[in-house]
Design a protein that fits this description.
mainly alpha; 192 residues; single chain; Arc Repressor Mutant, subunit A; Tetracycline Repressor, domain 2; 2 domains
């Protein structure tokens, strides 16, 4: 009998990662549990042991990526949540996460249906962005920035972080330098 390429206990994560890869390759049109099963070399029924339908798999994919992303972000500021450097550390973690996991960027920002409200502090905002916003607002308050300027400065900082992540995950863009260094060198200038 042919040896399976996965450990049975890890099939759920294999299905999630395969699903992310398939959506990034082909989009949501035609995406199915059957295709995910085929990519993992398991029976067409195997995914149903973990997900009742395709919507549940897509939701689990979003949760999987968000949990990993939040872990990276929280770890980057652990013990320094209220420091002036916290926003820069989060930005570095944001960029680093997508350097390490470029396949997640396209899935998250083009296929997962996440919500980010730049106009309001919205409870339904995507958690990594909400953490970045809260931390940036604390820093803005600490440096005496007028509250009316918070939103605009946040957009500038997040555009830099998210823009760098977008560039580095684009296979058609080449840069031999250090993406995180680009952010660090320009982050403080944008706050002043």
């Amino acid at each position: 009998m042919k040896e399976k390429p996965y450990h049975h206990g890890d099939l759920r994560n294999k299905l999630i990662e395969a699903g992310i890869g398939l959506i990034n390759e082909d989009g949501l049109k035609g995406f199915s549990l059957r295709k995910v099963a085929a990519k993992c070399n398991v029976s067409h029924a195997a995914p149903y042991s973990h997900f009742k339908d395709i919507d549940e798999l897509i939701y689990a994919m979003g949760e999987h990526v968000t949990e990993r992303f939040m872990d990276k972000m929280r770890t980057s500021i652990r013990g320094q949540e209220n420091s002036l450097e916290a926003t820069s550390l989060l930005g570095q973690a944001y960029i680093s996460f997508f350097i390490e996991n470029p396949q997640y960027f396209q899935f998250l920002f083009y296929h997962s249906g996440l919500t980010i409200d730049l106009d309001n502090d919205n409870a339904n905002d995507y958690p990594p962005f909400a953490l970045f916003r809260t931390t940036a607002y604390q820093m803005f308050h600490s440096i005496g920035l007028p509250e009316k300027a918070y939103s605009e400065k946040l957009i500038v900082l997040w555009s830099m972080v998210h823009g760098i992540a977008s560039l580095l995950t684009n296979q058609g863009i080449r840069y031999s330098g250090d993406w995180i260094h680009v952010f660090i060198n320009n982050c403080i200038k944008e706050i002043e």
